[in-house]
Structure formats: structure tokens, C-alpha cells
Amino acid sequence: MKRILFGAVAALALTAGFAAAEYPEKEIQGIIQWGAGGSTDTVMRSVTPHAEEILGGSVVMQNMTGAVGAIALNYVAEADADGYTLLMGAENPMLYKVMGLGDRDYGEFIPVSLLARGTPLLVANNDAPFDTYAEMIAYIKANPGEVRFGSTGPGGLPSVVTAMINAVEGELDVIAVPYDGDGPALTGLQGGAIDVMPAVLGAAIEAVRAGNMKALAVVDLTENDKLPGVQSVAAVSPGYATYLPWGPFFGVFVKKGTPDDVVAKLSAAYAEAAKNAEFIELMEGRGFTLMGISGAEADAFLSKWQQGTAWLLQDAGLTKASPEEFGIARPGQ
Amino acid sequence: MTALMDFLTVLTQPQLLLLVGLGTFAGVYVGAIPGLSVTMAVSILISFTFSWDVHPAIALMIGIYMGGVYGGSRTAILLNIPGAPSAIATALDGYPMAQRGEAGTAIGVTTVMSFIGGFIGIGVLALAAPFVSDFALKFQPRDYMLLAILGILLVGSLSQGSLVKGIFAGALGIAIGAVGRDPLTFAERFTFDLRLMEGGISFIAVMIGMFGVSEALLQLHHVDKDAVRQKITRIVPSLATVKKHLPLSLQTSSIGVVIGALPGTGGDIAALMAYDHAKRVTKNPEVPFGKGAMEGLVAPETANNAAVGGAFIPMMTLGIPGDAVTAIMIGALFIHGLNPGPMLMIDQPDMFWFIVGCLVAANFFMLLFGLTGIRLFTKIVEMPRSVLIPLIMLLSIVGAFAVNNSISDVYWMLGFGIFGYFMRHYGYPLGPVILGVILSRLLDDNWRRAIISEREDLGRFFEGVVTSPLSLVLFVAVILVFVSQTPVWRWGKSKLFKES
């Protein structure tokens, strides 16, 4: 008993006093929500080595895939809140509750750093009978039930963009063909299995540059300097201003309850790492917008993102449960 | 001329050559241990080689890839435990050979055939990449579905003995593959509301259990018997042997390249299809298939190594990964500041030729490392069973844990191991289970994609099958393979032969 008590006191003293000063005193585990070679994986593997240098410790990254990232999220949520288990994820968890995929979201985490966000792009097969966004809308209206859109399941980027198009242009009758990721869907697009795919700019840009698919519009308020000459959807239909800018994002998180000084140390390390010239070049080359935010700013971004997206999906009838049930307020209320 | 220089980069720089060699050597062992996969090794290397130049990083990764695909055959032959899914077919005839004391010969043939297959894959990559990738892009969801059906029909050649038991095993595999959240709609299937089941069942865990643990349990029956003594007479196969199998290896290599180049299918399916092909075209094998036929080693081993070159084809020409490993390599190129995509071949042809050069070097290293140290390896089979069985158990547990660093995978593995033991005990083949797991999603996802694209109209679906030449060929192949396994066909064939 005495020994246990002593151990407990010692542990308490360690966590309270020395641990923070010495963090990190052991390996940090980085749990990547998505598979090796994907966008999240690439972003995390290219920023973390710089953060390691600043932290003076090592971050061992591991891909833990499955259930739209929920397996990784649950793993980190169930680990100790000591800053030794990081969640490296994308936007998906913010929709778990309304999509019926789980009962947790980033609300149970502290954003160490929201690194960057992507811009969605509408691309089409080269043989598709339209070349611009306006022509596409006109064609779909004239030929209902004929155009095939790629999708990556409910809550994925294509479903959100499609919901946005429906909200702005009125219900469009298209076929949504499901794929397990934007990579396979873009492959299908090039082979003619689908006609249109809403994808993150970075995933499609090389194929667009090579002329293997055509860009219809950037789903943003303005044109993107990576793709000059491709109009923005907002330029065609001003109604988009309500929903944009919108895009997937990448961030590093720790469980709530992690000591403040540990969070501060991690945040500082990732903020500094994200300023690395190579990393910036890498991200900009792929059309990502760098954010590098943390703390209250990041929390505000997350809740705004969640409100906008969850209600958009709710209004499109794609959710399993109303955002209201989880206290997600309608934007502007 | 510059292409030649880029191609030779790796050969002229000792440091790069050393890295390819090191990678290949490591790959053979990573591949040989079930659960340690090439995919895992390469993704770890991304972080490890982060601060390196792109050339040495890629050289090391390619070495691991080539060596790893080959390495899977080692444990398949020696212990009946495939080191990777692409070596499942290798175990079918390789293990019986080892049981006859011919493990050395089996490894020798496997190595030389992997070398030949590897070269054919690289050759097609170097000379015809754009054509093959154009062809691969033509595959529509319905073609993938037909390909998966063709794959399911392999149950016939994988089940020794009872076909009914084989079909049962295959169906079980398909069901196992369907567990978890459906990746297309996120609906839960066979999860019984358990979080444990949400992510599905890792099929590597199933494979390790069914082959590894069940093998260990089965060996317990004769724990007191002496192990088979291996006769190491000839390791390098004679020229005559290679010549004899050359036509077959060319055919199975082509299967490997094409299946490898298709984004969505890889070396595992290629090896199984090649095995089936060998079984069909080999009229009179010296030893029956499943009992240690050399053709049963030639086919899968040429095919899975040819699939390596195949997988690079869409990666280099379109920036589309041909399999999981090339997907990670695309990420690696991106991290190193290149833009992997269709423009890579135009903007940076040097990278293409450098990769081809590395593949060639890795292939030679594979031959070198494959043919040396066989004596030492075959000692594994000669170990007393009281040492071997605990070793297999240990390897299986470590391997299953390593897949996802998850203890639940270890439980799955042990459960399927015990289940597999009883299946074998009652004469149910295990190959079809793994086949079912591999093909489950390919079949299911693509069927749904295909029918959703046609607005759920079966008429339009079949119209598509008949009007597309590619679909039609696959459809006819499915019908022919199916009919050829029915009694009607055999009856008709025997009648025909009598008349002629």
C-alpha cells in the first residue's frame, strides 16, 4: 500500500512538475486516419519531420484506417491525454455524428494545428458533352438522369459539393456512382465510367494539366491561381456565396485534458514546421491553402465548418440524424 | 541516349546500387515473414528517407518491393505459410515438394522464375507502358466485376477433392470480406453493433491464422516424428528445365503484367489466375497439381513478379497507383518535390528511366540473394517439430499484431487458425477462403457501381456487356470457364473424342 501510494505521489509529481518541462521524454505516436499514400498521409509525413526537429523528440507515424477514420479517432480518444498520442486527421470526424458514424468528433480534441485546407474542383471526362460549369448545368437539366457523378459515400467531399450544387441550382437529376476514395473515382473518370467528379484540386491538378480530364469550375469564390482561366462557380451563380469558401482540411489533434504546456509546445512546433519553405512549396504546388492556425481560432474554424456542412447535408436529406440533436446550430443563428 | 544514361544511373553509382541491394535483401526477409508486408515497409521508409535525396530513397523502396514480392514464396514453400497473399498459390505445390525433401529445388525454380517474370514485367513497363495503361483505363466497373467472377471460378482449381467443400470455403471467404462498414455507403454489415467489427476483419490476419496456426496445430499430430531430410542436390534449375517451362512462364507473366497494371487488382489475384491457367494448359504434369507440380510454382511466381513492373505502368504514365505499394511511392515522389502524374514522363523522363534501372538492378539482386543461402533456409524444415511449432506460433502472433498494431487482429488470427485447423481436418480447402476474401470487395463494389451507373436497369446492364468488346470477351470467358467445369462439358468432350 505504502509503495503504491508512493508511486502515485511520484507519478503525480512527475506529471505536474518535471514531465512538462521535459516533454517529450519518450516517443510520440502519430496516428494517421487515412491510408499510406493518400492526401492526409502525405501532408502529415511531410510536415512532421520538421516538427520533430523543433520538438527535439521523435514522432512515430502509423496509418490506422477503417470506418471513415473513426477507428483512428477512437484509438486516440481512448489513449491517455498526455500528449504522446497525436491524431492526424482530415475533416471527416466533424460529420460522424450527423452521418451516424460515431458518437465522437473533434469536440473531444484540442486542435494542435490546422495545417491547410483544399479547394474543391469540378472535373469532367474529356468526352463529356460540356466544357464549362454553366454548360454542365444546362446539359443536366436537358438530360435528366443521364450524367454520372462520382461520389465517395455520404459525407465525403463529392456529396457535400453535390448538395451545394443542388441547393444553389435546384435539384439536379444525376446518378451518383460510389467509389472508395477520390483516387479510384478519378481513375474511373478517365476511363469514362463516370462523367463528372468533384475532387480536391490537388488530386486532379496533374491530370488536368496533362489534358487527361477537363476542369469545369473551381468550387470557390474566386479563380485559383493554380488553374488560371478556370472560372469559379460563384462567378456563374452568386448563390454560392452563402456556402463558400468550403473545403476539406488537415489537422493535428490531441485529446482534451492534455496539459496546456504540452499543447502549447506541440502547437508551437507544428506552427514553426508549417513555415518550412519545402513544406510550403509542396502544399502550394498541390493547390492547398495554408492555414497554420490553433487555439481559439482553430476552434472557431471547426465549429463554423461543422455548422455549415452539417446543415447543408441535413437540408439535402443526406444525414442520419439532425444536427440539432447534437447542439450544432444552423449557421447565422 | 539520355534515356540510357538515366537508366544506367543506378548501375554507375555504387551508393545507389548498394541501396537497391540492401533493399532487396531486406525485402526478401520482410516478405517472408507473414504479417510484415512490403506496403508497411515502404510506408515506414517514407519517414525514414524523408531527408534523403529522391534517388536513394526510391532505390531503397524499389529494392524492398522486388525482394518482398519474391520473399513471400519462401515461407510458403518451407512452412506452408504464405508470407504474403500473392504467395498463396505457391504454397499449393511448393510445400508438397518440401515435404518430399525437394525444398532446395523448389526454391531454386521459384527464384529463377521470379527473375524471368520480373524481367518481363520490367520489359513491358519500359517498352509499352502507354499502351498498357490505355488498355487498363478501359476497364469499366462491369469489367472488374466480370474479372472478379472469373476469379471466383478459380475455386474449382484451388479445391483439391470436393468441389462442394471448395464452394463452401469460397462463400465463407466472400462473407468474411463483407464484414465491417461498407466503404461506399458506410452502412454496417455483419458487425453486430460491435465497434471491434466496424473496421472489418483484416484479411492478412485471416490468412496468417488459416495457414500458419492451423499448420502448427496440424503438425502437433506428428510432433514425435522425425522431420523430412532435405536432399540438396541441385538448386539452380538446369537449362532444360527452364526451357521446358518457358512457354508457360511467358503466358503467366503476361497475365501478371496486365492484372498488375489494372488499378484495383494486384499480384495476389494475378498469381491465383496464373496458377489456374497453368492447371488448364498443362496436359501432363510430371507430378499432379497440388502434389508438388513444378508448373504450380512456375505460374504464380512468374505472375506475381511480373505484376511489379505492371503496377508501375499506370503509376508512371498516369500517376494512378497500380497497387498499394505504388500508391505509397506516389506519395514519396510527391514529398520529394516531384509531381507524380501524367506529366512526370514528359517533364522528368529521367525519373522513369531511373526507376526502370532500379527495377532491373533489384531483379538481379533478387536472383543473387535467392540462390544463395538456400541450404541454411532448408534447415528450417529439418528442425525438430518441437522447435518449429512454437516458432510458427510466435511468428503468426507477431505478424498478425504488426498488420495494424492491434491486439484484436491477433484474436481474429487465432480464431481463424483454430477454425482453419478443423476445416483442414474435415477436408475443406483453405485456398478458396482467401480467394473469397480477396475478391469479395472487388466483386461487390463493382457490381454496385455498374448497376447504379445503369440506373439499376438489368437490361441496360446486359446491353453494356454485349456492346463493349472488352466486357464481351470477359463474359464469354466466364461462361466458358464455368461450363468447362460442369459434367455436361466433360460428357460432351468424351463423346467428341470417341467420334474423332
Structure in words:
- The complex is a heterodimer of chains A (333) and B (500).
- The longest helix of chain A has 21 residues, at 2-22.
- With 333 residues, chain A is of the alpha/beta class.
- In chain A, strand 1 (28-32), helix 2 and strand 2 form a beta-alpha-beta unit.
- Chain A is 42% helix and 18% strand.
- Chain A folds into two domains: 2-117 and 247-326, Bordetella uptake gene, domain 1 (D-Maltodextrin-Binding Protein, domain 2, 3-Layer(aba) Sandwich), CATH 3.40.190.150; 120-242, D-Maltodextrin-Binding Protein, domain 2 (3-Layer(aba) Sandwich).
- In chain A, helix 2 (39-55) crosses helix 10 (260-273) and helix 6 crosses helix 12.
- Chain A has twelve helices and eleven strands.
- Chain A is globular.
- Chain A has helices spanning 2-22, 39-55, 70-78, 96-99, 133-142, 157-169, 182-190, 201-209, 233-236, 260-273, 277-285, 295-315, and strands spanning 28-32, 59-63, 85-90, 109-117, 120-124, 148-151, 175-178, 196-200, 214-218, 249-255, 289-293.
- Chain B has 500 residues and is mainly alpha-helical.
- Chain B has one domain (2-495).
- In chain B, 75% of the residues lie in helices and 1% in strands.
- Chain B has 24 helices and two strands.
- Chain B has helices spanning 2-12, 14-32, 38-48, 54-79, 88-99, 103-137, 141-152, 155-158, 163-178, 195-198, 203-219, 239-261, 267-281, 295-318, 324-335, 344-347, 349-371, 374-382, 385-404, 407-425, 431-453, 458-467, 469-483, 487-499, and strands at 180-181, 188-189.
- A two-stranded antiparallel sheet of chain B has the order 1-2.
- The termini of chain B are far apart.
